[in-house]
C-alpha cells in the first residue's frame, strides 16, 4: 500500500491531521489503515498512513472509498503519469522475453539504457552504474569520488536531501533523516548553508548587490579543508528553491580550483521536470557525476542511475555497486521506455510551457495576498510559501497545513516542504485544463485562509 499524501515536517498526531482523518476516512479504507499500522514499523512521513490507494491512472489516484485526487506529489516518480499504456506494454513484453539477468551476464535493455543516458547527458557524462534507488546511486557517486581523488571529505548543504542510507544521510542536511541516528555519521561530511535568495539580506537590496556570498562559503570551506573529494548538491532544491544566477558556475569554478568533484543529485528534478532534461542545464554547468532515480522507472518500477565522466571509470578492481538487480532487464526496459516517451511526447518542452503558465497564474491571482511570502519554481516543480506576517516573513506552518487539508478535501494532493511551502509537482502529461482546475483549488484555499 502507498499513502496518497505526504506532508514534510507535519506531526503524525497534528490536530489538522486528526480532524481530517476523523471526517474523511471511509468504511472501506479504515480496516486497511488499521492493518497497515499494525504491520509496518512507524516512521515520520510514512506509516501510520493518512489514507489508502486502490487505483492510479494518469494524474489521478483513488482510495478504496472512491475519493479521487489529482496527485501533485507522487514522490516525484510520475513524470509521465501513472500507468502509461506504452510503458505497461513494454514491461509486459520484456517480462515475456527476459525477466531477469544474473550479475555478470549482460542484456540488451540494460546496455541500451546506459547508452541512452550517455546520449542525453551533456558533456562527457558517459559511464553508468544502475542501482535500485536514489540513495544508493548517491552512495555509488561518493565512492567514485573517493576512488578518483584519494580523498574522503565532502561539502554539502544543510536542509538538502540525498537519501536515507547512512552515507546519503551523512551528506544530507534534513534533520528528519539525521537526528535519530545514535553515534557519529560518516566522517568528513562538512555542511554549509544553502542558497536562500528569498531570505538573503543581499538579495533584498537588489540583484546588483548580490555578491554570491552563499557560493563563496563553498569556496571558503574547500580552501580551508584542502582535501575535499566532492561537493554534492541538488542543482535545484525540490522544496522548491531555485539557485541565484551564477551560483553553480561559481561553485563549479571553485571545485576546479581545489580539485574537488561536483556531484549533482537530479533524482527528483531530472528527466525534464524543470523544463530542461537536467535541472543543471538551466545554469549552464556540467557536473562530474549526476545521479538519477524516482521517475526513471516511469512510476512503476524502482531504478536509479549514477552517470559519471568517462575518465572517472577508475574502480574496476573493486565493487562499488554490486547490486543483485544491477542490470535487471525489466527495470532497464521501463527506464529506457520512459525516456523515449518523454522525448517522443515532447514532455520537457511541455513542462517548461505549463510551468510558466502556472507561475504566471499564481503570481497574478495572489499578488496582493498577505499570507503569501514567495512563489517560486521551474517548470512543473513550483511552490507557494505561506507566511503569518508578510513583513518579516514569519513562516505560517499551521496555516499552510490548514490550506493543505482544504485542498485535499477539494481533490488535490501535494506535499508541504520546509513546514510552510505548498509544493506542487504535477505529471508532465497533465492537461492544461486540469492544471488550471488545480490552481483554482490552491488559490481558493489560500484566500480562505487569509486573516
What's a quick, concise take on this entry?
With 451 residues, the protein is α/β, with parallel strands linked by helices.
Q: Taking Cα atoms only, what radius of gyration do you get, to the nearest Å?
A: 22 Å
Poorly predicted ranges: 1-12
Largest beta sheet: what is the strand line-up?
4-10-9-8-7-5-6
Q: What is the averaged pLDDT score?
A: 92
- SSE string, helix = H, strand = E? HHEEEHHEHEHEHHEHEEEHHEEEHEEEH
CATH superfamily name of the largest domain? Answer: Type I PLP-dependent aspartate aminotransferase-like (Major domain)
Write down the overall geometry. Answer: globular
Helical proportion, percent range: 25-40%
Structural class by SSE content: alpha/beta
The CATH architecture name of the largest domain reads 3-Layer(aba) Sandwich
Care to describe what's here?
There is one protein chain. The protein contains 13 helices and 16 strands. The two termini are 38 Å apart. By secondary structure, it is of the alpha/beta class. The radius of gyration is 22 Å and the shape is globular. Strand 5 (153-157), helix 6 and strand 6 (189-192) form a beta-alpha-beta unit. The model is unreliable at 1-12 (pLDDT under 50). A seven-stranded mixed β-sheet has the order 4-10-9-8-7-5-6, with helices on both faces. Strands 11, 12, 13, 15 and 16 form a five-stranded antiparallel β-sheet that branches. A four-stranded mixed β-sheet has the order 1-2-3-14. 48% of the residues are buried. The protein has two domains: 15-80 and 347-448, Aspartate Aminotransferase, domain 1 (Alpha-Beta Complex), CATH 3.90.1150.10; 85-344, Aspartate Aminotransferase, domain 2 (3-Layer(aba) Sandwich). Helix content is 36%, strand content 16%. It has helices at 15-24, 29-39, 85-97, 108-120, 134-149, 166-171, 201-204, 213-225, 247-258, 329-344, 347-365, 397-409, 432-448; strands at 55-57, 60-62, 68-71, 125-131, 153-157, 189-192, 228-233, 261-265, 289-292, 304-309, 372-378, 381-389, 394-395, 412-413, 415-417, 421-424.
Amino acid at each position: 500500500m502507498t499513502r496518497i499524501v505526504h506532508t514534510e515536517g507535519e506531526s503524525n498526531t497534528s490536530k489538522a491531521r486528526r480532524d481530517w482523518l476523523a471526517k474523511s476516512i471511509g468504511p472501506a479504507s479504515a480496516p486497511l489503515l488499521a492493518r497497515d499500522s499494525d504491520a509496518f514499523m512507524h516512521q515520520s512521513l510514512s506509516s501510520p498512513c493518512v489514507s489508502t490507494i486502490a487505483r492510479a491512472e494518469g494524474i489521478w489516484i483513488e482510495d478504496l472509498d472512491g475519493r479521487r485526487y489529482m496527485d501533485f506529489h507522487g514522490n516525484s516518480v510520475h513524470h509521465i503519469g501513472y500507468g502509461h499504456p506504452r510503458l505497461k506494454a513494454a514491461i509486459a513484453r520484456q517480462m515475456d522475453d527476459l525477466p531477469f539477468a544474473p550479475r555478470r551476464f549482460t542484456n540488451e535493455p540494460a546496455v541500451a539504457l546506459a547508452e541512452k543516458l550517455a546520449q542525453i547527458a551533456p558533456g562527457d557524462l558517459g559511464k553508468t552504474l544502475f542501482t535500485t534507488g536514489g540513495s544508493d546511486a548517491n552512495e555509488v557517486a561518493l565512492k567514485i569520488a573517493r576512488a578518483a581523488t584519494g580523498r574522503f571529505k565532502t561539502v554539502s548543504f544543510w536542509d538538502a536531501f540525498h537519501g536515507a542510507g547512512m552515507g546519503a544521510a551523512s551528506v544530507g542536511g534534513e534533520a528528519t533523516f539525521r537526528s535519530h541516528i545514535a553515534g557519529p555519521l560518516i566522517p568528513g561530511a562538512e555542511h554549509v548553508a544553502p542558497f536562500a535568495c528569498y531570505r538573503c539580506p543581499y538579495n533584498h537590496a537588489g540583484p546588483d548587490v548580490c555578491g554570491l556570498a552563499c557560493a563563496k562559503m563553498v569556496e571558503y570551506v574547500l580552501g580551508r579543508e584542502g582535501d575535499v573529494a566532492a561537493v554534492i548538491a541538488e542543482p535545484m532544491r525540490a522544496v522548491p528553491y531555485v539557485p541565484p544566477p551564477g551560483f553553480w558556475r561559481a561553485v563549479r569554478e571553485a571545485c576546479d580550483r581545489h580539485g574537488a568533484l561536483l556531484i549533482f543529485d537530479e533524482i527528483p528534478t531530472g528527466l525534464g521536470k524543470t523544463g530542461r532534461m537536467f535541472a543543471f542545464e538551466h545554469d549552464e554547468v556540467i557536473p562530474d557525476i549526476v545521479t538519477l532515480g524516482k521517475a526513471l522507472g516511469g512510476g512503476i518500477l524502482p531504478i536509479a542511475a549514477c552517470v559519471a565522466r568517462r575518465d572517472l571509470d577508475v574502480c574496476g578492481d573493486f565493487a562499488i555497486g554490486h547490486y543483485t538487480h544491477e542490470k535487471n532487464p525489466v527495470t532497464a526496459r521501463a527506464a529506457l521506455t520512459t525516456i523515449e516517451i518523454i522525448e517522443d511526447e515532447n514532455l520537457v518542452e511541455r513542462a517548461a510551457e505549463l510551468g510558466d503558465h502556472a507561475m504566471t497564474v499564481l503570481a497574478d491571482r495572489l499578488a496582493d495576498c498577505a499570507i503569501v511570502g514567495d512563489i517560486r519554481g521551474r517548470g512543473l516543480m513550483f511552490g507557494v510559501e505561506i507566511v503569518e506576517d508578510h513583513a518579516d516573513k514569519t513562516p505560517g506552518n499551521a496555516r499552510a497545513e490548514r490550506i493543505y487539508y482544504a485542498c485535499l478535501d477539494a481533490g488535490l494532493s501535494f506535499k508541504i516542504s520546509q513546514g510552510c511551502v505548498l509544493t506542487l509537482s504535477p505529471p508532465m502529461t497533465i492537461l492544461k485544463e486540469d492544471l488550471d482546475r488545480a490552481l483554482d483549488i490552491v488559490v481558493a484555499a489560500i484566500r480562505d485562509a487569509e486573516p
